[in-house]
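Feature request disguised as a bug report, sorry. It would help if multi-protein outputs had a clear separator. Right now it looks like this:
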Amino acid sequence: MHEEPQYVSLRQFTDRRGAFIPNPLDDRWLQQNLSFSHRGVFRGMHFQIEETAQAKLVRVLNGSAVDVIMDLRHGEENPTYLTVSVYSLSHSMDSDEIYALYVPKGFAHGFLTLEDNTIFEYYVDAPYAPEKERSIHWKSLGVFSDIFKNHNLREEELLISDKDQAAPTLEEWLARRERVLPSAEDASF
């Protein structure tokens, strides 16, 4: 089955006390992760390969972030291979709904926080497998100059882990010729 990234609308009920957001999950989600970040933190572009590839459901619980994904699913019939997409995620008490983003297996994922105290939540459907973890250096994706301009950020302001700074470029990773998904899933376009 060929899945595409998509916004997922979640109903938010607010009153004078605050907000309540039911979180409808199915049995596919194995783990919930939370990160707390300052403005300018970039985490990504992460993914796992082969049988440990992860689908994710991501959302912002406080603050705002720009979510960046890249389609790494092989297949001659995949017209979106290596396409980079950018999504805005935030949480406002002034809305009846908030949005999460569904990221299918086979996508590299990263996010840039736009405010201090941004809380980013994500669900994954496969366990963390350090030996199958991969990343691509964020500078390999041409979208960041526009993101910086649109959000009044400079590259010098970014807070990035040493591990993410040492990630291979897209070209270096492509030269490894690794399959992101098992062959049968990769060919299902």
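(second protein starts here, but nothing in the output says so)
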Amino acid sequence: MRQQSRLVIYDGCEPCPYVPGRTARMPIEWFGPRVGPEQLDRLLAEGYRRSGRFYYRPQCPACRACQAVRVSPQRFRPSSTQRRIWRRMAHQIRIEIGVPQLDEVRLELFNRHRLERNLGREPFTTTEYHAFLVDTTCPTMEVDFYKGERLVAVAITDVGARSWSAVYCYFDPDESAWSPGVFAILAQLDLACRRQIDYLYLGLYAEDAVHLCYKAHYHPQERLHDGRWLLVP
């Protein structure tokens, strides 16, 4: 097997972005100009996440609160609330799949979601959005959600040979009542199940992190603990 190239761009400790009062260490790594589907599968299984052209995973000195989470689309069993959201909205939402793109509509929707849901203090520029969600080294798709002709949510998903990774999702805050974030994950699980994908990786979970704890609601799931994937029924 060919050894994958690896370059550490940054490796330092900083205040944790997820759990207040803790120290995080998430080295930023580069695996070359192109990461193929099989290589992406291996990186995801090792707990890596992608941001733009770079990859990272927690290697914090004194904390193991964050754990990578993955769900088998074939074994997934939605809760009663998730079933209700899907039944309510499946016939109202049109889903389109393409490549990640950038335009005024997406940038405005992204920044509204970011600022109105307190996910950041400053709006992204076109350059920042492109570097975050469009510029990628691996196969990546954009899943768009429309109400009529209006784009209401966007999910960016990395595509491996046997696994997908839910990179980021944003939506119109005015549509929050029908839980578009939940619907987007359910849609990705549904698409992955139809295409016989083994796992959908949901990113990092931490019980005490307000923006990460929702991932506990998708069962059964596996969490990466000390290099081993453990089943959480």
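Even a blank line would do. Unrelated, but nice: Residues 71-217 form a domain with the Aminopeptidase fold (CATH 3.40.630.30).
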